[in-house]
Design goal:
By secondary structure, the protein is α/β, with parallel strands linked by helices. It has helices spanning 42-59, 73-83, 96-100, 145-153, and strands at 12-14, 20-22, 30-35, 63-69, 89-91, 104-105, 116-117, 120-124, 130-135.
Length: 154
Amino acid sequence: MSLLGQTAPDFTLFNNKKEAVSLSAARGKKVVLAFYPAAFTGVCEKELCTLRDQFAGLEGANAQVYGVSVDMPFSNNAFAAKTGVSFPLLSDVHREATRAYGVSWPNFAGIAGLEVANRAVFVVDAGGTVVYEWIAPNPGVEPDYAAVQAVVAG
């Protein structure tokens, strides 16, 4: 079920510094939610580094970027340090946000019971409405970064 045009599901997750972060606290800013399957994997690293490189342009548009995975805060912190990502990486260890946004990917890499977030990007406007939604057909596909940047800049 698409969330486009709907109020974004709120959540409170721990960032890579073990601080609680709620989506609702970012009201008044545009928010980019970049769901990714797993820290320290090739496509995820490429995606987060691309968003890192575009982040300066997104900050100018009064936007906040959050990476969201099911990894623990400790793993996300090491991943942020390795990639130089300065935006928060949020840990959805209980899969609540992943399921609320409809991006759960069960049996990742053929491992029964390993549920991760599929690669997906949502842009939430300053009022809390989902204005952009992209969900990968499989976790190996990257988003259209220019499209995300255009929505945030627009």
